[in-house]
Amino acid sequence: MEQLKVIGIKAVDFGLDREMLSVYPNPAENIIKIKFGTNTYQNMFIINLNGQVLQSANINEEESELIQNVARLATGTYIILLKGAKAQSQIKFIKK
Fold first, then answer.
1. CA distance readout (Å), 19 to 8, 28, 53, 92
2. Which residue from 14, 31, 49, 58 lies 20 to 30 Å from 3 (Cα-Cα)?
């Protein structure tokens, strides 16, 4: 069996200092709340799995939460895409 040799310590960045992104309730029926960090994003898009943008909204820099009515969306899985000048994030949610 081979022995392991310690050659030093190296810092690892897991990106944990990024702003947290969440959507609830998930699964959703009528309304979703999207929480994110302030001063990060300018636009929000709800996209189906075919890549079609179904809803969009502008985000003010002071905002850290958006409320979206998803009652008209068909049952299925959707992606919320948040875009900013220096950041882009996505999260999935399920519409019941």
1. 31, 23, 24, 17
2. 14
Residue 76, pLDDT > 90, answer yes
Q: Residue 16 corresponds to which tokens in the numbers above?
A: 């944990």
* The pair of three-digit structure tokens given for residue 74, joined into one six-digit string: 């068909």
**Rounded CA gap, 85 and 77, in Å?**
27
pLDDT at 17 over 50: no
Report the C-alpha gap between 24 and 21 in whole angstroms. 10
Q: What is the mean pLDDT of the chain?
A: 89
Amino acid identity of residue 61, one-letter, is E
End-to-end, the C-alpha distance of the chain in Å comes to: 53
Distance CA 40, CA 89 (A): 10
Name, in order, each residue with C-beta under 8 angstroms of 84's C-beta and a sequence gap of 6 or more: 40, 41, 42, 43
